[in-house]
Specification:
Elements lengths: L1 H31 L1 H37 L8 H48 L3 H5 L1 H14 L3 H28 L2
Length: 182
């Protein structure tokens, strides 16, 4: 029983530590590449929210087709149907555009943050005194820091973004199911 509590505390502590590192790298990414990061963030939000509008207009297209089938051929007006189809198509294209913008900015942010973190790591490791390298305990700490650095801190910023994306995506899916399901 005691092992479970220790294990749960260890897991919670580890999660808090990783999440705080992710938030720090997220802030660093925002400082390093504010323009790319914000464009990527809004493109990511757009790729999540556009399907709500898309589903709404697709529902309107289906409703309009059903309404047209129920009216006589002389009384049919195709203008609303055509406008709904055009708006739905534009939303689909804008979703694809938002995905491509998101992918490009994600790669740019990843490489710029990785470059900034590499420079920061090298700057800090060079600033260490030579006596730290002569002491085996300190040398081991430097090697451990270098090994931890290779976990790619910029991935943490991308993971925090994708965590936010998944949360908003779930809300979007619930909205679509709640309002557009028969």
């Amino acid at each position: 029983m005691a092992k479970r509590k220790i294990k749960a505390k260890h897991i919670i502590k580890d999660f808090k530590e990783k999440f705080s590192i992710g938030i720090k790298v997220f802030r660093h990414a925002l400082k390093t590449t504010p323009f790319d990061f914000l464009i990527g963030f809004f493109a990511l939000i757009a790729t999540i929210l556009i399907p709500i509008g898309s589903r709404y207009y697709e529902k309107n297209v289906i409703d309009e087709v059903i309404r047209l089938l129920q009216t006589s051929p002389e009384a049919r007006v195709l203008t609303p149907l055509i406008s709904f189809v055009i708006i739905s198509s534009v939303l689909r294209l804008s979703q694809g555009l938002a995905w491509s913008i998101n992918n490009v900015t994600e790669k740019r942010v990843f490489y710029k943050v990785q470059e900034a973190l590499t420079f920061e790591f090298l700057r800090k490791s060079v600033s260490l005194d030579i006596e730290h390298f002569e002491d085996p305990r300190k040398s081991n700490l430097i090697e451990q820091a270098e090994a931890a650095y290779h976990d790619k801190g910029s991935n943490m910023a991308i993971r925090v973004l994708w965590l936010l994306r998944n949360f908003i995506g779930i809300l979007s899916a619930v909205t679509i199911i709640a309002f557009f399901s028969p």
